[in-house]
Amino acid sequence: MSIDRAAYRQALRSDGEAIAAAGRSHLDAEVPACPGWTVHKLLAHVGRVYRSVGRHVAERATEMIPADQIPRPPEGDAIVEWFEEGHGFVQEALDGADPDEAVWSWAGQNTMAFYFRRMAHETAVHRWDAESALGAPGPLNSDLGADGVSELFEMVLPFTVANWRLTLPDASLHLHRTDGDGEWMLANDAGRIKVSHEHAKGDAAVRASGAELLLLSWERIGLDSPGVETFGEADAARAWFALSR
Questions:
Q1: FRET pair for 71, CA 20 to 30 Å: which of 127, 177, 199, 203?
Q2: What is the pLDDT of residues 168-179, one digit of tens each?
Q3: Domain with CATH 3.30.1050.10 in the chain
Q4: Amino acid 1: pLDDT
Q5: Cα dist from 116 to 21, 45, 153, 157, whole Å
Q6: CATH placement of domain 5-133
Q7: Region for 197 from its dihedrals, namely left if φ exceeds 0, alpha if ψ lies in -120 to 50, beta otherwise
Q8: Domain 142-242: CATH architecture, name and number where available
Q9: What percent of the chain has pLDDT over 90?
Q10: Span 220-229, average pLDDT
């Protein structure tokens, strides 16, 4: 499994366009996986993320640009065009960036490579959210999904656990991808997430496709979903996935 910059850019482009299409269809639809969110609020969130990342990338910022400098979204139907402008802005910024260039990031990986990857996964998961609000989420690319599992447990959650002082499950979890390469052993190492890519026995094990593992890890689907197999302590698996809330 290998994801290159071109694949990340393509995912950002196509999934972002699909989010906008969902917005043009039904802004008031509720997003099942995000309680309290409508499609309008989803476009507002992602569009603001695009503007923040786009500024950091375009300005080669090595310090955080404060959130109060990022434009707020509009109300009503104007949100769709506002979202599309943000989507275009972040794509243009990344198009002109070298993955090895320095830039500030909240995760501590301070190169442009972080944002190529993060924007692809941010957009893919929220595209699924937006389409699920309309009742028909399209499939996720399975290789991209497997890469997203690695990003979540190796990059996103270590930051979240450290900064929000979350308590990790004591039980270990093994994730096994069924439609390609990909295994993850997750363990609590003195309050830090330890990830190894090996075939090993955990207190719980979950087998699914790369796309399904990503959706499970972000709590978009449950262990009772079609194509998902669970072994051992199911509550331990749920506790690991709950860290992404």
A1: 127
A2: 999 999 999 999
A3: 142-242
A4: 53
A5: 22, 18, 17, 18
A6: 1.20.120
A7: beta
A8: 2-Layer Sandwich (3.30)
A9: 96
A10: 97
Instruction: Give the pLDDT mean for 205-229.
Output: 98
Q: Is 36 left (phi over 0), alpha (psi -120 to 50) or beta?
A: left
pLDDT at 48: 98
Instruction: Say if strands 204-208 and 173-177 run parallel, antiparallel, or are unpaired.
Output: parallel
**Would you mind telling me the total number of residues written for the chain in this entry?**
245
pLDDT score of 68: 96
Residue 240 CA, distance from chain mean position: 16
Q: Assess whether pLDDT exceeds 90 at residue 216.
A: yes
Q: What is the structure's pLDDT at 165?
A: 87
What average pLDDT does this structure show over 41-70? Answer: 98
Measured over the CA atoms of residue 146, residue 150, residue 151 and residue 157, the dihedral's sign is: positive
**Residue 243 · residue 167 · CB < 8 Å:** no
**Of 9, 19, 14, residue with least CA distance to 92:** 9
Question: Which residues are 194's β-sheet partners?
Answer: 187
**Distance (Å, whole) CA 6 – CA 63:** 27
- Collapse the DSSP code of 175 into the 3-class scheme (helix H, G, I; strand E, B; otherwise coil) and give the result: strand
Report residue 65: phi and psi, to 5°: -85, 120
User: Helix 5-25 crosses helix 112-133 at what angle (to 10 degrees)?
Assistant: 30
**Dihedral, 90, 96, 101, 102 alpha carbons, nearest 10:** -40
Pairwise CA distance, residues 203 & 223, whole Å: 15
Q: Structure tokens of 225?
A: 């979903």
Mean pLDDT, residues 85-89 taken together? 98
